[in-house]
Amino acid sequence: MSAVRLGLCTALLAGSLAACGAGLKSQKDAPLDDLPPEEIYKRGELILETARKPGDSLRYFSEVERLYPYTEWAKRGLIMQAYVLHKSKEYEEARIAAQRYLDFYPGDEDAAYATYLMALSYYDEIDEVGRDQGLTFQALQSLRAVIEQYPDSEYAKSAMMKFDMAFDHLAGKEMEIGRYYLKRRNYTAAINRFKVVVQDFQTTTHTAEALHRLTEAYLALGFTDEAQTAAAILGHNYQSSPFYEDSFRLLKGQGLAPEAKGTGWLATIYRQMIKGEWL
Q1: Helical spans, DSSP H, in the chain
Q2: Residue 128: what pLDDT?
Q3: What's the pLDDT score for residue 8?
Q4: pTM above 0.70, yes or no
Q5: CATH number assigned to the domain with residue range 171-279, chosen from the 4 options 3.40.50.620, 1.10.3720.10, 1.25.40.10, 2.30.40.10
């Protein structure tokens, strides 16, 4: 191919691409006032499926609600705004849109999904364990709303799973603070944190370690009855756990063994959890 023909083809290709880009840009920026609501909504769906950024579709779902309020398309546009905002990680805005949907259409079939989106927007903001746990509490409350208000919906099962994980997250926060105090030999403060896990978060993955750390902290303070009782609960419920092996070794080093003793709070836990004595 000659240089002239090559240059001509390159110029034509560049012009074609530029025209295509301009066409897409003009379509994106074109006013929507004269379009029927179904067309606006479908354009939003198309862009949501094909665009690299889901937020590019937000304009269409917002406009169909603005231009055709109180219609079926406005209702669909509003729930899609909540979805797109969540997908774009605009969590606070997603919650606002979902709440507007619930305010306008509380009995609609998508009310369960709007409630789930609100819960999900809190849940997805939960960061690493070391951060403030306020969002975790809000996520738990919102997830509970999905479970209790829409138990037969397709979102209930997912909400229950996420509720358990968020609950575990809170226990992890208590453990992190307890380990901090334990490392600095502030045993009383450490015990208070581990006690919360054993009493309030028994179903989480952190209970075995909490019982071991209680054994460790109580031994350091010379409270052997409490240490032995913590290890006894640990051995009964988590005998195969390496934490039980560590607690057993600590007790054995002082000539002690796991055994329920005394009348303290751990003895009460032992009677309730192991013997089923609740009175």
Answers
A1: 3-29, 37-50, 58-67, 72-87, 91-104, 111-123, 134-149, 156-183, 187-200, 207-221, 224-237, 242-253, 265-273
A2: 52
A3: 34
A4: yes
A5: 1.25.40.10
